[in-house]
Design goal:
Helices cover about 70% and strands about 0% of the residues. It has about 170 residues and is mostly helical.
């Protein structure tokens, strides 16, 4: 993101809207969707940082994040979130894998059309973000405590790109 601030800005704005801005899905739920898709894509950085953000939103429950990644169907999350994770996992494989039945099951579990829409967009966006991070062989800290610290910061501050300061030459 630091390499191209002009492209980072819209990417961060999209993340802000999808993951942090007011929504009927709690930020922790949206971060779990991003984490799960990143886990399926084997993107270490994204699954770790967004898992830390999810945990920060979920009162520090890192174990829940691990359970969702390992087997969300048996994790202690709502039936609605489980139905949305089914949709997200299918988007991760390819958008055409999502069926009308998947959408109907999510609705039956209490998901609204905007929540279904946003789940699809989170999953699709994180396929892009994951490929962006991994495709550039981005440096990824290996120290877990760094992710926890980043997670707490992003959970409270969101994804707004800091304003660019003019250089001394400007």
């Amino acid at each position: 993101m630091a390499f191209r601030p002009d492209t980072a800005k819209p990417l961060n704005e999209l993340a802000e809207i999808l993951l942090h801005a007011p929504n009927s899905l709690a930020p922790g739920e949206r971060e779990l969707i991003a984490t799960y898709v990143s886990h399926l894509n084997d993107c270490y950085f994204c699954q770790t940082v967004h898992g830390a953000i999810a945990a920060a939103h979920l009162d520090g429950d890192e174990d829940l994040v691990r359970r969702v990644k390992a087997d969300f169907q048996h994790a202690d999350i709502s039936a609605k979130l489980k139905a949305l994770l089914v949709i997200a996992s299918k988007v991760q494989r390819g958008g055409k894998h999502v069926t009308a039945s998947d959408v109907e099951e999510a609705r039956q579990a209490g998901a609204t059309d905007i929540e279904i829409h946003d789940t699809v967009l989170i999953a699709a966006a994180f396929c892009m973000y994951n490929r962006y991070v991994d495709g550039l062989a981005t440096w990824q800290p290996q120290e877990e405590s760094m992710y926890a610290q980043m997670g707490k910061h992003l959970a409270s501050e969101g994804y707004r790109t800091p304003s660019v300061r003019p250089s001394a030459a400007d």
